[in-house]
Structures are given as structure tokens and as C-alpha cells.
Amino acid sequence: MFDTAIALRPSPQPATPGNSNRRVAALNGLLARSWASGLLSTPSLDPAELVATAVRQTGLDDLGRDHWRPALEQLCRSLETEADLNPFGRTVAHGQIVGALKTRLRAHALWQRHPEILETPLSAPIVVLGQMRSGTTRLQRLLACDPRLDHTRFFESSHPLPQRGRKLRAAVALQAMAALNRDFAAIHPTGAGLPDEEIGLFAPGLISSQFEVQWRVPGYARWCEAADTRAAYAEFRALLQTLRWLRGRRDDRPWVLKVPQFTQDLPALLASFPDARLLCVERDRAAVVGSAASLVHNQMQLQSDAADPHWIGREWLGKVVHREGVVARTLAQRPCVPRHTVDYARMDDDWLAEMQRVYDFLGLPLTAPVAAAMTAYIERSAQGRRPHRYAIADFGLCPDTIADRRAA
């Protein structure tokens, strides 16, 4: 009940169509004038040109298997016909896609030079399985307090390959985004060296929900929901092996994995990690949809001057329901997959008791030093953090609409 009450509470600054960010508006004007004058070229979103740019900038040409090409073509088609990007959004889209392709080229070159990377052990990962905004970050960061477990840091997700200053690059990127988007820290506080999800590791395969969060690309979203993503998850595993190899670790400690996209791709995830143990995070659907829509609107309005909160509400309600269906069907078909339910409300009420249940499921003792580290994390995260306020009505939704929606 508490969860839903927050989602129903009027927000101090209701989500509205358009973009009121003055800094982004000024940047859009500067970019538009530069393109019109010929000072800068308009960034291309043509798939062939994006690939050619990545090849030219890296001097490499082996992109591996071609499963990513249809995804790239669909993403670019959606960006051109659906996303209604402003100049800043077009620049970001071009840069992100070229960057993803460059990572792809460099990864395959690295694996050719060091085939032993793909033999790196990666056994029995602990998968935090939950919708975006369901409390998965809190659970992941609590588990990251345990030195017996591995986790991914933000800079590793955004820059997974050997590169001088990659942590600094990630920090600079976060600072730049914070300057343009001051509200994001209240929604998802992070830092270059902090535990974070592995969403960046899906970008090189061009099948990544990070694109759907930033841009209105429903054609691409439906394509991804219907796609066979097993090849993308095989490469995701290879990139995790690369991170472990770069760390110089020889032990095979359990890795805590957390990406909300897992709920959409659970069969493919289990194909690459058949020994995974699932921590299934559950939260009131109204709160999940409202919080997700708020985050997406926060991101989308930076890159489009026509971000529509009501469309976002409908889209992400549908996405949440679709992902619920995938998880329910997959787990019903695979009763032997180890899983444990973690309840958001119980975590709010007594996080330590909930974590004790998690550790009992994992067969690990929750030691006093680990519990103390977790307590310190909880206390730090509460200090100075602004609450994330949103109202489902801002997104054209009401409790009955959300509760009654069923998967198609």
C-alpha cells in the first residue's frame, strides 16, 4: 500500500510534453546552426555509414557473427521515423552507436589475440531478476558489499575493454550528463566506481533496452521482444569473461548480475548461464510502472522536444506486463531453476532480515563484517538523497488501468 501511495501522490513538477531544459535547448541551437552553416556535418544514422565510421576509427574490420545487423537496421529505422530526435539526441544516438560498434570491433580483435579469455570460468552467477525500478539496484549493491562475490562497476559496463583512463572517461561522462540533467541523480544515483548494472555490455550487440529508455523507438522495441537473443547473450557472457580476465582474477567467485532486460530475455540468459541462481525481485506494479515512466521521461525529454508522457506511460505499462509474462512462462517451464523471491516492501521494512533470507537461499553465512558493510551502504545511500517523486496520473494512467492490463 505504501508503494502505491507514493505513485499516486501528486508530483511537484508534473511530467509534460516537450523539453524545458535550458542547457539542452542552448546546445540544440548551437548544433543546428553548426550543421546549417556547414561548420559541422549532420551526424548520420545510416547503418552502413555508422559501420564504416567505426571501422575507419579503429582500423579493424572483424565484427564477428552478423546477428547484430538486423538489430542495427531496425534501431536506425526507428530513430529516423519514430524518435523525433532533436539535434542533441541525434548527436548522442550517432555517438552511442558508433561507440558500440567500435567496442564490438575491439572485442573481437582482443578475443582473437587472447582466445584464453573465452575459457575464463564464470560459474553459478547470482542473477538479480526484476523489472526496472523494482528495487534491483538496492539488492545488487547490498550484495556488492560482500567480498566473496563479484560485481560489475559502472566504468566496466560503459568501457568493458582495456583502455587507458577508462574509469576517468566514465566519470567525465557522468559529470557531463549531471550538468545537463540535474534530476537524474535522484532517480538513479551512481558513480564511475560504484556497483551498477551490466546494460552497457549489451550495446555492442545492438540489442539493448538502454536505447528504449532514451528514445521513442517502439518498432525497435517490438523487434527486440520477438528476437532470438541467444547470440547476444553468448557475447554478453564473453564480455563478462573479459572483465574477469582484465582483473587478473583466477578464482571463480559468484558474479552478481543485474539488468532489468533479463526479465525480457530470460530464456536466452539461462541458455548462456544454465547454472544461474535467480533472486526474483517483486514490487507493486503501479509503483514500478510509475517510477519507470518517470525515469524514461527524464531521459527522453533531453533528446526529443516532443517526449510525450502519456505515450511513455502506455509503452512502459505494456513493457512491464510483457516482461512479467516472459518470466512467469519461463519459470513455469523450468521448475528446477533455483529461485528465491525478494519482496520490495519486506526489504523496506527490515532489509537485514530480508538479506538473511537471501543468504540462506544462497547457502552463504551472512557474516558480521558483511552485515556491517551493508549497514554502512544503507546509511550512506540515505544521506542527502532527494526522493524520487512521480505520479502515475502524469503518464495518463490510473491504478485500475495498471492492475487490469494483461499480456497480449
From TrEMBL:
Q: Keywords for this entry?
A: Transferase
GO MF term list: transferase activity
Q: Which Pfam families match?
A: Sulfotransfer_3 (PF13469)
Write out the coiled-coil annotation as residue ranges: none
- The segment annotated Disordered runs over 1-20
Name of the featured protein: Sulfotransferase
Q: Which source organism? A: Glacieibacterium frigidum
